[in-house]
Amino acid sequence: LESGHFVDPISSPAFQTLKKGLAKMQAVARGGWLCPFILSQCLFFVNSSLGKRRPNIVFMLIDDLGWNDVGYRGESTPTPPHTPQFGELLAQGVQLNRVYSYAWCAPARASILSGRLPVHVDVNHTNSIAFNVKNPISGSSGIPSKMTVISGKLKEVGYKTHYAGKWGVGFAWKDQMPISRGFDSFLGYLHDSCDYYDNTLADRSIEVPNGCEKAGINGIVDLTKDDGPAYGLNGTMWADYLFMNETIKRIQEHNPNDPLFLFHAFHSVHSPLDPPEELLEPYQHIWDPTHRAYAAMVTFVDTAVGKVVAALKKKGMWENTLLVVSSDNGGPIYAGKSLALFGGASNFPLRGGKTSDFEGGIRISSFASGGLIPAVMRGKMINDYIHVADWYATFCALARVPMYDTVANTSGLPPVDGINQWPLLSGEISDGQGPRTEMHISPVTLIQGRWKLLTGSDPGSINKHQHEGVVPFDSYRPGYGMSAVLTTGGMFLPPYGLACHSGCLFDIWDDPTESHDVAEENPDVVSKMWSRLQELNGFIFNPDRGTPDLEECKTMQKTGYYQPFAHESLVQTNRTYDAGPIVHV
User: Fold this and answer.
1) Residue 41 and residue 63: Cα distance in Å, rounded?
2) pTM given for the model
3) Residue 111 in 3-state DSSP?
């Protein structure tokens, strides 16, 4: 450490002296066996592990981006959102054509940050104000406090770490907050959604209320700066403007001698779909207000990503940066209780959407760019499987820090599932040789090679009015207008979706739109995959996350803002309410 900054060992005189000394010792010891072997391993570590400058890593997560809602893939729609920055970055980067996630946001985000498959971190829909006083580690919604998230790993090797935007992975216990997780700074909101303008969480701001807002306790500000309320910031501007300003500021103030990890989680394009008028102007020709607002917000995201890239270039950091742009899940195609809460997305030609395990709900738009991408890979498409959990292992490999989570292991928590995908992204291995061949998507869905087995509705889903053995949101329609109304109405009328009581099987390589169920022609495949799914389900992480307590809502209403509220000495009252999820209507 020099002047409070981490100095990469390659630039240290001590490093050079160590390297020369090891080489001399190895030469002297050539007559033996063990000593030269050990010294050669030391030299390998010095050369390969410490001999390169650690790259900057920027992850930009888009909320609820539809498969077809990007300009480079939206040719099939009459008015695709304009995303010119994405197009330019793809020319300099790699399009990732088969990235998979969970069907809705909280488990997906928990997977990205923790490196675990969602089934090993957070797949049960838990009330945001629930907690289990007897279990401060995993007794609440979100990522258990003793799971090391990626920022904590990168801090071990000197990264400066910053987070802006939506958190959404738990805040009941203080140890779940971003600052306790290894982030140097945080500006964002803690829940799945909030009002874009006044930063409060009310029933009108979220399609599936599940916390204080469901109990009618509204008006609590959900905007945090580091580890306390963002005094003076709430209500000052549209939320995504606020978060973008924060991210640009962090880049401008960053010391380029330090490696940077920046996680920017857009509120867009999650509902409520109500962007500022200036963003709507280019889309006045779109008559449907939901479609118009959604397209405007996608274009804002594209512009914002471009501004981040420009800031990195101005700072001289771009050539040593890996940028990953990704959706968290598939685009929502349902109707809402107001036009602003309609899903707004299009996943065409994929089937289904958010909260459904059809491809439209779990196969997401994603690409990687930046100076770190080798020239030979720029402009290419990778078709191998990548799961969002793999970013953890990939970033650890790039930062040269072990991905093994000692803290989690000591606490008896599931290990990291992620696989290092950098050899695939960098061209060290060719397309078609990727290391991931199986994905335990959810308790009801398994992918192995070309085959995808669907067995029904996810029991942990935020959809209440679903039916066992039936996959919901069986539609290719977009999430606006009568199309969204018809799709949502299908959940209330027989057959309620696609009936998969005996298992539905799709060849998603040859049939990515899941148009042909081939279960009857491949009974052996169905049988083997179903057995494997049941085996994997035996390891689902599903702790008692507690029950919600209205008294905590009332306390936060008095203070005026959301904050951690659980602690071991707290006595929970019996004043709870039914926290079951509700349907998108």
Assistant:
1) 44
2) 0.89
3) helix
